[in-house]
Amino acid sequence: MLLSLLNISGVNSVVECKLSCSVYMALIPILCFSFFLKNTCAPSEFACANGQCVPGRWRCDGEPECPDGSDEADATCTVKQTCPPEKFDCGGKCVSLSWRCDGEKDCENGEDEADCAADARSCSAGEFQCRNRKCLAPVYVCDGDDDCGDGSDEEKCSPPTCGPHEFRCNSSECVPQPWICDGDPDCADGSDEWVGRCGGGSGRLAPPPTRRLQCGAGEFRCGSGECVKLAWRCDRDPDCKDKSDEADCPLLTCRPDEFQCGDGSCIHGIKQCNKIHDCLDKSDEAGCVNATKCEGPLKFLCRNGECIDGSKVCDNVKDCKDRSDEPKKECSLNECLLNNGGCSHICVDRPIGYECQCPAGYKLLDKRTCGDIDECENPDACSQICINLKGDFKCECHQGYEMDPVSKTCKAEGKSPYLMFTNRHEIRRIDLVKRDYTQVVPTQKNAVAIDINVAANRMYWCDRFQHKIYSAYIHEASDPSRHVTLIDSHLHSPEGLALDWVQHNLYWTDSGDRTISVASADGSRRRVLISTDLSEPRAIAVDPERGFMYWSDWGIRARIEKAGMNGVDRQVLVSDDIEWPNGITLDVVGKRLYWVDSKLHLICSVDLNGAHRRVILSSSERLGHPYALAVFEDRVYWTDREKEAVYSANRLTGQDVTSLAEHLNDPHDIVVFHELSQPAAPDSCNLSGVTNGGCDFLCLRAPQISEHSPKYTCACPDGEELSPDTRQCVPGKLITLLTSQSDSMAETTLSSLLTSSPEEPAVSSNTTAEHSPTQVSSTTPDSLSNLSHHCKCGSVFPIVATVVFGVVCAGVYLVYRNWRRNSTKSMNFDNPVYRKTTGETEEDEIHIGRTDGLAGHHHTYPGPVVGMTEDDSRNTVTAGSRTDTWLPSYAGTEWHLAS
Which positions form S-S bridges (predicted)? Predict the structure, then answer.
């Protein structure tokens, strides 16, 4: 092509060209570059027959990506792929060997599930094999529960014989002797707590144990002991375990002109089927028949509003009363013959008029022009990664996952995943591929929360009855002597547990004292992280990669919140359409948070910023009282306390609900064990050879809000604070002062005030002082409120008072008692008489911080960022009118303290 263009006939030929020499010289490199560019693809790419380049991994993957289909042509894919030992050969394609005989056809020809009955392995020597070839631990045979699912484990069973240190319940099961008459029924029939056996009167059953001594003012006490919201009483939806919240409820009847909602409430009849949800349960819009629109090629809308069948148009019969279906000029006109009717792609002629259409993968933008459909906007389009293409899309998987050739879902590589869940007196395990069903931890009193460290093969759990948090290696957990007690004090009612598997810290919620706490994984270092604005904290989850923790609170204002794993940057994620958020879990691959709502019978999800909310499953039949959930691959797993079972469903569609374990005994928490469920990441607290980040006590992962965010911050134990080096811990001066001198504080303050001259007038609010009043307030809801304090007259002594019309003593006592809850008020001291003002202008605001070369980056972190959270405080010493305040801060972060 280039030779003919230049008309070169020989070495000494004369170039005859109308182009100037300069244009000719510039044209040569352009032509050469375009010639080679057209035919060259990168080594990692596949060159389609038409010259287009696509990623090499798309070659022979069963889906044509080249416009000409050459990437899937027989000539391209004739060479069979050689499978490595860890793969199974499907006849030219390779899949994970662990998918062999797992009950799902992963090969297109189904070879991975062929001859599985002959190849089926027998159970190990210590296991029981069910008729359906499921393997059970011996402890589940003849225990009164159908654990096999076919009843074979409960056949030919003799009455159980209890050991010498066990008690036989009237319902035949055996429980340890120490559990008798401990106030907590352990037998299925409660016979271990019968009053006749335990004393205290006649009768059978002792009063059931209560979670708390008293329910709150806005709560209802169930007959089974727990507390639920008073608003849930008589709403036709049982929330108590014994359903006592729906007992003795008046029968609601509606007037003849009213509609009765599913919950029994009444609305006016005209509000039914008005396309507005007037009933709380939305039952007023259920089953409504919408008017059929006169649209599409099968319908024709007459000019007078009539709707007739499209086949009756231009048939020489006037079917419209206004005869608009038989226009003479238009019936014989084909608009598509002229300029394709103005359509960008496909023009379809109609009896009257025409219609523009688009090929697959495109949509009409303006009734004429077709544009590409972004299929990736649909979260159900792909299992993990969605790549939008012109007129099409492509699904891919993250590293460590493999695309199933048949289902097109992403499945984990490596070992088989398995579930671990608490079952009150024990912790069980189910292999999700082999379906082995075993006991991991026996003889627990009330195991409610669990988490794991996959890399270390270690598990953590808490027993709410014992008020303790334990740990053990999973392979040793069946031996109680190998259990390590991590936390055994100041636990009231632990609800949720989450392990930071990277920085090796343990987080938990406690609904008894309404706190969220953190401790090192060995339990040696511990502190309260959040203690304010918590009502009923329940589940907790952590994201070590991004440095955030998430928790649910089903109290008066039910919500799901998140904060940094060091307690800063607290924010509400979900607060609307939420009632009883029990369990939460993170999909670290998909970057979404899932939760179950036991009141609304929902499984929902949002992204990690609280947006793009989706309802996965909504069903009171499928979701009785869901408590906890876990997500892995394309499945969501949950426990149900009402149905006493473990279920799973598709996490994208909510379909294919499957029962995994039934006949349980109050199941609670659930987790998935697999190496991909806890992705590896660098330990921020042990970088560059610095152990524990150089922190004296705890090293906590900091939230990664921006590129300037710190990797970690230090934290001190309750009652201590960080020294100026932000690493060492020193006694908290304010806390020490308040605790050690609490008895003498009121006397000292009152004495100093009584010795002041009563005749001296108070300084008015508009009096000009040498220094303006100083206003200090905490910007975090997680930290303790500070007190403006300490007048120094020769020596420093504390003055904490709110003087209302001279009632000094009562004011001092009130401030001291409520100092945790009150907002910080600014105090201006001008001895010997003082005044109190509340600053509300910009002049009252103090900016304390340092920029260190990062001026302009002013992200405000609520609360003390380096280890100073709820039980820490800031030290402010006031002498006359001078205030010296020290606060730790991030380098480059400016603090804004104002009331």
Answer: 41-53, 48-66, 101-116, 123-135, 130-148, 142-157, 162-174, 169-187, 215-227, 222-240, 234-249, 254-266, 261-279, 273-288, 302-320, 376-386
